[in-house]
Amino acid sequence: MTPALTSILAGFTVPMRIDTDPASMLWLLPLVVAIAVVYKATKVDKIKASAFVRETAVLIGSILVFIVVAAIILHGVAWFVTEQLPGLRGGSSF
Amino acid sequence: MASSWKDNHALFLVVVGTLAWLVPGAGHFAIDERRRAYVIGVTILLTFLVGLYVGSIGVIDPVGAKPWYAAQMMNSPAVFLLGRHVTAVNRQAQAETRQESAVVPYAVYGRPNEIGQIYTSIAGLLNLLCIVNAIYMAHLQSIGETDG
To answer: Taking CB atoms and an 8 Å cut-off, how many pairs form between chains A and B?
Structure first.
């Protein structure tokens, strides 16, 4: 077995180092692409490269827009509950 | 008398479903949906391998993460062999140190564990979608051939 292949296989036995920071959320992007590609592959009548890429791109965009909108709404709710509500009720909400 | 194995409708659907589970995309390949098969096979395999690379094979945990393992099993029966290997190696390490809480060789925690489990499980659930789709398409083909 070549050293390169051994190194690649060894990579599957040790986890990567990923910090718990906002940048780690970028790991959702490849997953969204995979979900959109497989979903579209099961939905279209015939797979033709240009039409398939276009439809997949639209689905990826739709999912990302939905995620961003959901994140903004949830952030707003969390901000209201933790920052505004205690002031209205005259104390901590927890 | 049956002229081909496709004439036995139920058996044909079972074979297509089993192929789709054994190798992602193989179900569609068997019903002559070659492009679909390549797209599905490559995408699901890549997603699964990325998950394994990020979290290591320790993310396949038949003991401590049964719901995730059930979803991962939808990828292929090969996951069962990986799970057995991981469990055996971890149990051996615990037996050697004689401690349940011993640090096991395939231990994985935190964000790599989460991302690895999510990727491998989503790959499995996507393959489940493809298994159902391959069976459905095989059913439609059979009906089409019978009617035609």
So the answer is: 75
